[in-house]
Amino acid sequence: MSLRIAAIAVMAALAGCAGTGGDRPAAVERLYVISCGENHVKDLARWAAADAGKSIQFKNHCYLIRHARGWMLWDTGNSDAFAALPNGNSVFGGLLVQYMRKPLADSLKEIGVEPADIQHLAMSHLHGDHSGNANYFTAATLYMQGPEYEAAFGPEPQKFGFAAANYAKLRGSKAVKLSGDHDVFGDGAVVIKSAPGHTIGHQVLLVRLAQTGPVVLSGDVVHYAANWNAKRVPPLNFNAEQSAVSMRMVEQLLAQNGAKLWINHDPEQSNALPKAPAYVQ
Ligand SMILES: [Zn+2]
Which ranges of the chain would DSSP assign to H, the alpha helix? Predict the structure, then answer.
């Protein structure tokens, strides 16, 4: 072996180590942004007093992550059952109407993944537009903040605004109850960050992508860009003080990692992202 080839071999070996202890953090192989419904709001007053009277068509997404060591799903969208409702599912007395144009089950099939293939499941929180299809994923290990888990499977989930029927089948699932942050694959590629406030145990997800760079998947720490830019905590919220702290935490997380914030429900951001079966890397 010539010296030059040996040097290249050493460099290649070092590059191979980058994800397992080198100074460059590991990245996931693929991230699929899956359209998981829409939530049409007639009056934004409950999301920002300053936007009272305005309407919005929130987008809704599920995120499927391909890591070298398995599949992970983040958020499960509106219920696939809404696909049979041409006029959508009306909540809050018609203030909000939920749609599911294409069932998550169909989107996964298109990618070539079965629900049973998903080994890791985490939801930002258990409101209906994020837990709608949770019952598909009984084979997955469930990652949830302890207080969210206790509220979800305790005696009064409805008090927390949770739709218990959405995730009832996960009661017997292998669950990792978190009290803070959690590195899912142990290499820094996917990290759950505790971000309470919107719900009692809300969380966000840091995902490292090799080409796109790091992104933070927002859950509902914020619903649309105008609220993020002004750091407004919505009136419709579990704990406003915690939400403000969580927004500052996310701001620091973005700055520390040079990461972008992907706001799950923001219509303009959604329009700019490639959707499954396409993926980002
Ligand atoms: Zn939501």
Answer: 3-17, 104-111, 128-131, 146-153, 164-167, 225-229, 240-257, 267-272
Give me ligand 1 centre to Cα 25, in Å.
30
Distance (angstroms) between ligand 1 centre and the Cα of 218 equals 10
> 24 C-alpha vs ligand 1 centroid, how far in Å?
33
Ligand 1 centre distance from Cα of residue 153 (Å): 20
Distance 78 CA to ligand 1 centre (A): 9
| Chain segment 28-87, per-residue pLDDT in tens | 999 999 999 999 999 999 999 999 999 999 999 999 999 999 999 999 999 999 999 999
Residue 265 CA, ligand 1 centroid: distance in Å? 7
Estimate to the nearest angstrom the gap between the alpha carbon of 214 and the chain centroid. Answer: 14
Q: Which residue has the tokens 């998947």?
A: 217
Tell me the DSSP string of 163-214: -HHHHGGGTTS-EEEESS-EESSSSSSEEEEE--SSSTT-EEEEE-BTTT--
Q: pTM for the full model?
A: 0.91
- Residue 280 is classified by DSSP as B
Residue 31: φ, ψ to 5°: -130, 120
